[in-house]
Amino acid sequence: MKYVFINLAIILSLNVFASCKKSGADEEVPLAPSNILINETISTNGSGKVDFNVTAKNAASFTLEFGDGQSEVSTTGITTYTYTNEGTFDYNVIVTAKSASGLTASVKKTIRVNVDAAARTLYWSDEFENNGAPDGSKWGYDIGTGSNGWGNAELQYYTNRSENVYVNNGTLKIKAIKEDYSGSAYTSTRLLSKSKFEFKYGKIEVRAKVPAAVGTWPAVWMLGADFPGVVWPNCGEIDIIEHRGSELNKIVGALHYPGRFGSNANTNSKVIENAATAFHVYSVDWSTSSIKFYVDETLYHTVNNSSSIPYNKNFFFLINLAMGGGFGGPVDPQFTNEVFEVDYIRVFK
Q1: Is residue 243 helix, strand or coil?
Q2: Residue 230 and residue 141: Cα distance in Å, rounded?
């Protein structure tokens, strides 16, 4: 009996040892990322471009926070980012490395970036140089009336007819006409660049001459490219220039977004001379930190940009001439036709 007891004890000890050994051999302890290095190459030409190359041990992906409210996830750690705030600023770049098992580690590095407005280059434009219809590779049309879901109690029917829109002598001309057309008392045109040109950030310049007739409402503006899937005003709207004939020479710039839309838009205006008889340059400087409105390079409205408003994504352009509506007001009974002229629209990056 004693012999059996001793052997049983030995067997039990061996089993426990084998069990412990097996567990330690088969189960690897997860390792967190380590040795995170942020390597950057900063452009010296004032463009704000920075090439990042992040490395680390045991990392499956990287989250880069660029220090201006924007971030990006990369599996390689290699990416290029362009800062847009004009001037020289220090940015605290934070990189969080994540292992395949979900463990994370972070490091921070401060970099200094200079953005010079003079270093910007032309990114996209329409100079409206070719006579005839607008360039179909850049512009489409909204057809119909406000009953389509995008009106403001306006009175016109938007068409793509050559009577209402054409390019001639170097300018785009959108012509509103008093006529009975498909149940509406006026016709006009609304162009849009959706699905043809969409972009995020930059300086937009529009050289234009507005109509003078009371009741006209010309506009060059932008909507978030996720519209209409994301309904207005959640998609965001940037009004580069609006004007109404009842307040001749008063130029309006505005942002519409949740909490600030319609009559409560984030807006300002400036009175200029000869808006209907001379061309002026209306511009918006849109960056991660602000959205600034200008007339002939004179700043008249600034809105701070942040992650709480929908202005950190792609937008598209619209150009139209409306009649009446909530902004345009009553139309002069003597109105017959008027033209909204656009010399060019340009985007600089």
Answers
A1: coil
A2: 20
- The pLDDT of residue 2: 36
Helix or strand run (H / E) with residue 24: helix 2-26
The one catalytic residue among 242, 247, 297, 341 = 242
Contact by Cβ (8 Å): 136, 65: no
The pLDDT assigned to 19 comes to: 46
Instruction: Classify the phi-psi angles of 65: left when phi > 0, otherwise alpha if psi is within -120 to 50, otherwise beta.
Output: beta
Q: Give phi and psi for 93, each to the nearest 5.
A: -85, 125
Cα–Cα separations (whole angstroms), residue 71 to 32, 33, 108, 253, 288: 22, 19, 14, 29, 11
Respond yes or no: is residue 28 known to be catalytic.
Answer: no
Fill in the DSSP letter of residue 47.
B
Show the low-confidence residues of the chain (pLDDT under 50).
1-25
Q: Which of 86, 154, 237, 341 is catalytic?
A: 237
Indicate if 237 belongs to the active site.
yes
Residue 223: closest CA among 131, 301, 87, 318: 318
Q: Which of 315, 312, 283, 287 has the alpha carbon at shortest distance from 199?
A: 315
* Domains of the chain as residue ranges with CATH: 34-118 (2.60.40.10), 122-348 (2.60.120.200)
Whether pTM exceeds 0.90:
no
